[in-house]
Design brief:
Elements: H1 3-6, E1 14-18, E2 22-31, H2 34-50, E3 53-61, E4 64-73, E5 76-89, E6 92-103, H3 114-119, H4 122-147, E7 155-159, E8 163-166, E9 172-182, H5 184-197, H6 209-214, H7 219-228, E10 236-240, E11 249-253, H8 258-268, E12 276-284, E13 290-299, E14 304-307, E15 324-328, E16 332-340, E17 351-357
Parallel strand pairs: 10-15
Antiparallel strand pairs: 1-2, 2-6, 3-4, 5-6, 7-9, 8-9, 9-16, 10-11, 12-13, 12-17, 14-15
């Protein structure tokens, strides 16, 4: 076995289902140390039981895809393991172990309770926590990859016929109409990613805990709702009509913690001031040199709205981070950018280039 690949080797011996929520897998982990071999075995077990989710982040120009980003994310975590054998071959450590892999979209719903704490040793408990946090971090990375292209590839930008306008004082202006709407390819990539890093709402209960108490439900039933509840309001909503469908679909997403919501808002929200994006208009000559450039702030409330959380207590220092975004995929923003052309040599202008930025500098 070559040195560059032997640390990634594993032998899948047996897969069995346990309680329909976890699978025990017998694997061989390879590494230069025992710890490295264990981690290699954990990754291999997750990959074999859960598989990989392929996420595509596309850059588009009109309807033409110009670049694809592919990421992988194994949506599972190690809930328990048993080391069967450890042996050494040359400079390689081989660990044979049984690994229990719990599967979930964000690897968070198998929370450790008091019963688990009494049966798991400290090192196993730490391994489980590390595995859960690792999966959440991987999910955030993929989400950041998709969101990093906002707003450049998130919208389709079109312009109408440019017109020259003379004001009442004989000022000369250039009016450039624009139309901004969501890119379907970008929203598809975002929905695919959010599906991976969000909780599975189908397995959650929307029955509020207070209501459960009012109904006189037993402690065990209330605890069930506490474990399965996704909350009374979605962390993010996308309203969108698929190309092949005639009905508008509303997708709600519930996140395991505020870190995922922070990641989204850090990319989508305007750094300062009213929610907007910057529309940059460059007038260029035949050689491609910029004759003049302006940036217009375009309000985006029709495209991207925010809901204030209904929490009884809100940390106002992090108010903007906890706002819940709503993408209205069926809407568009239209208008006109007016450029003062009194100090521009219009005879040298050959074309108009437009692109979007998060804000105008």
């Amino acid at each position: 076995m070559k040195a560059c690949s032997r640390y990634l080797a594993l032998t899948l011996i047996l897969v069995s289902t346990w309680a329909n929520s976890a699978s025990w897998v017998s694997v061989e982990g390879h590494g230069r140390t025992v710890e490295e071999a264990k981690q290699n075995g954990f990754r291999s077990a997750i990959r074999d039981v859960v598989g990989q989710l392929i996420v595509s982040d596309t850059e588009v120009s009109g309807d033409i895809i110009t670049k694809d980003f592919i990421g992988d994310y194994s949506a599972g975590y190690v809930s328990d393991y048993e080391i069967q054998q450890t042996h050494y071959e040359n400079d390689e450590v081989i660990v044979v172990m049984n690994v229990s892999v719990a599967s979930s979209k964000i690897a968070d719903r198998m929370r450790t309770n008091s019963n688990h704490r009494t049966t798991l040793s400290g090192d196993k408990l730490q391994e489980k926590i590390d595995s859960i946090l690792e999966q959440r971090t991987k999910g955030d990375r993929i989400l950041s990859n998709v969101l990093a292209s906002y707003p450049h590839n998130a919208y389709i930008l079109n312009s109408g016929a440019t017109e020259a306008v003379i004001g009442r004082r004989r000022q000369v202006y250039i009016d450039i109409p624009y139309d901004i709407r969501w890119s379907k390819s970008w929203i598809d990539a975002l929905i695919e990613t959010l599906d991976a890093v969000s909780l599975d709402s189908k397995s959650c209960s929307n029955l509020p805990i207070k209501k459960a108490e009012q109904l006189g439900l037993t402690l065990s039933v209330i605890k069930f709702f506490q474990e399965k509840s996704c909350g009374n309001e979605a962390d993010m909503t996308i309203v969108y009509k698929n190309t092949n469908k005639w009905m508008i679909k509303k997708s709600n997403f519930y996140f395991p913690d505020l870190a995922t919501l922070d990641t989204i808002n850090n990319e989508l929200r305007t750094p300062m001031g009213q929610q907007h994006i910057g529309l940059v208009v460059d007038l260029k000559d035949a050689g491609g040199s910029t004759v003049d450039s302006v940036c217009a702030r375009i309000p985006t409330e029709p495209l991207l709205d925010y809901a204030v959380p209904k929490n009884e207590v809100i940390n106002w220092s992090h108010y903007s981070q906890h706002l819940r975004p709503k993408i209205n995929g069926q809407t568009s923003v239209t208008g006109t950018v007016r450029i003062d052309a009194r100090n521009i040599n219009l005879a040298s202008v050959d074309r108009v280039d437009m692109h979007l930025e998060k804000t105008c500098n």
